[in-house]
Amino acid sequence: MTGIYSRIIGTGSYLPEKVLTNKDLAASIETSDEWIRQRTGIRERHVAAEHESASDLALQASRRALEMAGIPAEKLDLIIVATTTPDMVFPGTACILQAKLGIKDMPAFDVQAVCSGFVYALATADQFMRSGQYEHILVVGAEVYSRILDWEDRGTCVLFGDGAGAVVLKRSSEPGILATRLHADGSHAGILSVPGSVSGGKIRGRPLLQMEGGAVFKFAVKVLEEVALETLSAAGLQKTDIDWLIPHQANIRIIQSTAKKLGMSMERVIVTVDRHANTSAASVPLALDEAVRDGRIRPGHHVMLEGVGGGFTWGAVLLKW
Ligand code: UT7
């Protein structure tokens, strides 16, 4: 312990206006509201407008987080954006966001860890904070998955949505973030990927999301339990100390299995997958913002954030609110 901690002093989120229900999807592909709800818990998702990119969603979420934090954007010392659906190949979405916030000079970079992106970015920010060189850090998860879905593939297109969530961290002598743990295993890259790239002005490979749903499901349930226990142990805490679990919002069945393995009732789990679907790197900060603003998360509570996704990547952040 360095005696320097990161504390979240503001949260914010943004969902695009357009809502796409299961019924809407059933009008264009062979699926049903019943199948989607039973297998995933999803009822609807938000979809970005044609003119909206990841940085636009990130901008709205960041403004709200800064407003709650009560600091102007100029006070930020570092910006980290987690996204798998960046505005363009480069510059990074964090730099584009910085310009849209009307600020300059502080470092800004993207983290690409798919659905674990926000947890990766938050753990990264915490390391920067503990170096003692930074006082205020903006961490954002922003995604427009609607752009990388095959809307004719019922096995994947029903699962995802667009959105953004952000937090402002402040340096503090009181915790804050207690422990973080990150993992990756690239040998599982093939079960969840967008295997396309830009080459010579053309797209090489298929630039749309593909997934082996069953394999992803099993992997997620296994590692979400493991990494939660590992992170608790690093902080010297027990399962019973967790007040709120905020797992990546991919599928209600994955969330329920994780809660059961951790011996937690679903009353202590923050769930947004029903209304947001899987928003990848945005899912955890979107759920966090909701639970902070509606008063469920209160000072002194222990909150466990968990991510898992393509790579394969997974990780957890345990914090005291
Ligand atoms: O951030 C990580 C991202 N990904 C995930 O977390 C996804 C993890 N996996 C899952 O959530 C689940 O595996 C799915 C929801 C994707 C699939 O659920 P499942 O219970 O594993 O179903 P399944 O893939 O075994 O498919 C069962 C049946 C199949 O039909 P047959 O072959 O049994 O005749 C599918 O073709 O359901 C069919 N199916 C659908 N039917 C209606 C697949 N998608 C749909 C659909 N509507 N949208």
Describe this structure in words.
- Strand 14 and strand 15 (313-320) form a beta hairpin.
- Helix 7 (213-235) runs parallel beside helix 8.
- The strands form 5 sheets. This protein has a 5-stranded mixed β-sheet with strand order 1-7-6-4-5, sandwiched between helices. The protein has a 4-stranded mixed β-sheet with strand order 8-15-14-13, with helices on both faces.
- Helix content is 32%, strand content 26%.
- The protein is globular, with a radius of gyration of 18 Å.
- The longest helix has 23 residues, at 213-235.
- The chain has helices at 22-26, 33-40, 54-69, 93-100, 117-130, 154-157, 213-235, 252-261, 273-276, 283-293; strands at residues 5-14, 18-21, 44-47, 78-82, 108-111, 136-144, 162-172, 177-184, 192-193, 197-199, 202-204, 210-211, 244-247, 302-309, 313-320.
- It has 2 domains: 5-174, Peroxisomal Thiolase, Chain A, domain 1 (3-Layer(aba) Sandwich); 178-320, Thiolase/Chalcone synthase (Peroxisomal Thiolase, Chain A, domain 1, 3-Layer(aba) Sandwich), CATH 3.40.47.
- By secondary structure, the chain is α+β, with helices and mostly antiparallel strands.
Please tell me what the overall shape is.
globular
Mean pLDDT: 97
The separation of the N and C termini measures 18 Å
Helix content range:
25-40%
Number of domains: 2
Structural class category: alpha+beta
The CATH topology name of the largest domain reads: Peroxisomal Thiolase, Chain A, domain 1
Q: What series of H and E elements makes up the topology?
A: EEHHEHEHEHEHEEEEEEHEHHHEE
List segments where confidence is low: pLDDT < 50 over at least 5 consecutive residues. Answer: none
Oligomer: single chain
Quantity of strands, as a count: 15
Main sheet?
A: 5 strands, mixed
Q: Give the CATH class of the largest domain.
A: Alpha Beta
Tell me the radius of gyration.
Answer: 18 Å
Q: What small molecules accompany the polymer chains? A: oxa(dethia)-CoA
The share of residues in extended strands comes to 25-35%
CATH architecture of the largest domain: 3-Layer(aba) Sandwich
Q: Number of helical segments?
A: 10
CATH-wise, what's the superfamily of the largest domain?
Thiolase/Chalcone synthase
Largest sheet strand order: 1-7-6-4-5
